[in-house]
Amino acid sequence: MSSPWTRRWTIFKSRRRSRWSLRLFAALLAASLLAPVLANDRPLVLVYRGAVFFPMAQLVTDAQVGGGLPTAADFHDPDTRAQIRRHGWRIMPPVPWSHDTLDDWSREALPAPPSARHWLGTDDQGRDILARVLHGMRVSLLFGIVLTILSALIGIAVGAVQGYFGGRRDLYIGRFLEIWSALPQLFILIIISSLIAPSFLTLLVVLLLFSWTSLTGVVRAEFLKTRNLDYVKAARVLGVSDGRMIVRHILPNALVATITYLPFMLSGAIVALSALDFLGLGLPVGTPSLGDLVRQGKENLHAPWIGLTIFIALTAVLSLLLLIGEGIRDALDPHEREVG
What separation in angstroms does the CA of 53 have from each of 39, 46, 96, 236? Predict the structure, then answer.
């Protein structure tokens, strides 16, 4: 007989939309994590006059490729490209631009529309949109995943204490959560973000102040329901410690309901970071992010390819997470049955 988790995985796989959404999201996550390799203005491999270079891992100067300057080589410079064709060869990334590369050699007016040179066009500074989307997706997804994991850990811990011990602990924590949740979170986040120097870590801490509270009620309810079951009472009689009781006997049951919320928490984290970046209160200026691209689209309405690209990217990510969450919800529903 298959285990409960095996049956749940089978039910999830039977939901075609959720299954394909998980595959597409995994591919999108992998592409974003590999953004420095997939989108970069330096060759993956360079061979010049018999010497082998790996410019993505080492500095290659202009003098080393036929120029006369000791500074880093510009591999989009027509003279540099001609020298490499004459005396060697190179392998460029699929997207030969980084998120901060300025196309100084383009003859198009900025922002430039999509072309063979820039598949999704450029922004008003000449930076490649596709490269910025890949790098921005990387930052946003990593931020969202880290925030979701930390929020889940704190929410589960607080909810477990509430539900297992009950009494005054449950009362005091519950009253604190009621007051904390009633605060105008958006305004507080904006005020804090405007007072401190923005960075990945500080924004993570700021958003973590409120994001963990969404899970506490769910975990508390599961612990309240489970702590009075016969096997828990028997474990108490046998002298099992509270910590072991929570971690080994009750928490696994509470996780079933908790996992359902994680895709939705991840989408909320991505939207929160994008909103702060859009308002100029997020990551430092110049950092590639989805919110910065949304702002670029608003400021360049005459260049619709910018706004359309980020709209499609954000919609795709959030829709995939929504469909994954629906599949997890169905898989963990005790009334659901395997299809076929």
Answer: 18, 5, 17, 65
Q: 53: which strand partners?
A: 46
Q: Three-state SS string across 69-114, please? A: CCCECCCCCHHHHHHHHHHEEEECCCECCCCCCCCCCCCCCCCCCC
127 within a domain of the structure (yes/no): no
Q: How far apart are CA 210 and CA 268, in angstroms?
A: 12
State the pLDDT at residue 130: 94
What are the distances in angstroms from CA 179 to CA 37, 61, 300? 47, 59, 41
> Does residue 123 sit within a domain?
no
Residue 339 confidence (pLDDT) above 60: no
Q: In DSSP terms, which residues pair with 163 in a beta bridge? A: none
The candidate with the shortest Cα–Cα distance to 258, out of 117, 149, 115, is 149
Q: Higher model confidence: residue 335 or residue 314?
A: 314
pLDDT tens digits along 205-221: 888 988 898 889 888 88
Q: Which residue has the tokens 């939309």?
A: 17
| Residue 262 within any structural domain of the chain | yes
Contact 203, 276 (CB under 8 A): yes
Confidence of residue 33 (pLDDT cuts 50, 70, 90): very high
Per-residue model confidence as pLDDT tens digits over 284-312: 877 888 888 998 899 888 999 999 999 99
Locus of tokens 């994590």:
33
Let me know if residue 116 belongs to a domain: no
- 6 three-class SS: helix
Give the contacts of 65 (CB within 8 A, at least 6 positions apart). Answer: 46, 48, 73, 80, 83, 84
Same-domain check for residues 71 and 164: no
In this model, does residue 337 exceed pLDDT 50?
yes
Question: Measured between alpha carbons, how far is 230 from 249 in angstroms, rounded to an integer?
Answer: 12
CATH code (residue 195): 1.10.3720.10
Residue 316 has pLDDT above 60, yes or no: yes
